[in-house]
Design a protein that fits this description.
This protein is mostly beta strands and 130 residues long. It is built from one helix and ten strands; from the N terminus they run αββββββββββ. Pathway: Amine and polyamine biosynthesis; ectoine biosynthesis; L-ectoine from L-aspartate 4-semialdehyde: step 3/3.
């Protein structure tokens, strides 16, 4: 059994931040469970383009309001608490935070914690042997 708190993750290698976002990686590939689980916050007023070519991501918004624009299909969605989106087609997307967003995210395959978004918003596929 694994039990962790975001408090104990804060300030460790599992607490990763970039320009306008922060991701607390609660479960990672090295935990050997087949997915990773993160709490991600996006700063109010920021805009981000992501494109997960190597991962499926499910996102559940638990706090805040924003806009999700599917750049592959030119569709825009308004997001608020309780919204969920699933990037099951590896869609390139733009996320605009009207207020601070707090999201719970699941990645498959799991991320290792070493990934960094490249210039296209893509995480490389990094595999950890468990």
């Amino acid at each position: 059994m694994i039990v962790r708190t975001t408090e104990e993750i804060t300030g460790t290698e599992r607490d990763v931040a970039g320009e306008g976002w922060r991701s607390k990686r609660i479960v990672l590939g090295g935990d050997g469970v087949g997915f990773s689980f993160h709490e991600t916050t996006i700063e109010a007023g920021s805009t981000h383009v992501f494109h997960y070519l190597n991962h499926i991501e499910a996102v559940w918004l638990v706090e805040g309001e924003g806009t999700l624009h599917d750049l592959d299909n030119d569709v825009t969605y308004e997001l608020g608490p309780g919204s969920m989106y699933l990037l099951d087609g590896h869609e390139k997307h733009r996320l605009e935070a009207h207020t601070q967003l707090r999201m719970l995210c699941v990645f498959n395959p799991p991320v290792t914690g070493q990934e960094v978004h490249d210039e296209n918003g893509v995480y490389p596929l990094v595999v950890v042997n468990t």
